[in-house]
Amino acid sequence: MASITDTARAFLAIGGRVWIGPDNALGAMLDVESVYSLSLPDAESERRRGIGRAFLSAKAADPRAVATLVREYGQSQGPFIVWEA
């Protein structure tokens, strides 16, 4: 089983971003094009969807751990702390 850090890094590697907003809320997003592009083979698209699901499940299960990673590895961008590849 992958660690939450490995899962988060895999999510970032496929175009994901994780942030903490000015209200201290944790957020995450994945560029749809990086998962559902017609130029991706079906197997790669499915692999990326699996990574996205794994990360979002890990974030829901332990948001404090993900927030700690964002604070450790993220960069300040205005009032946000953003962790991206």
Brief overview:
The chain has 85 residues and is α+β, with helices and mostly antiparallel strands. The protein is 53% helix and 21% strand.
Low-confidence stretches: none
Largest sheet: 4 strands, antiparallel
Order of helices and strands: HEEHHHEE
Tertiary shape: globular
Question: Which labels suit this protein?
Answer:
about 55% helix; about 80 residues; four-stranded antiparallel beta sheet
Describe this structure in words.
- By secondary structure, the chain is α+β, with helices and mostly antiparallel strands.
- The protein is built from four helices and four strands.
- The protein has a four-stranded antiparallel beta sheet with strand order 2-1-4-3.
- Strand 1 (16-20) and strand 2 (26-30) form a beta hairpin.
- The protein is globular.
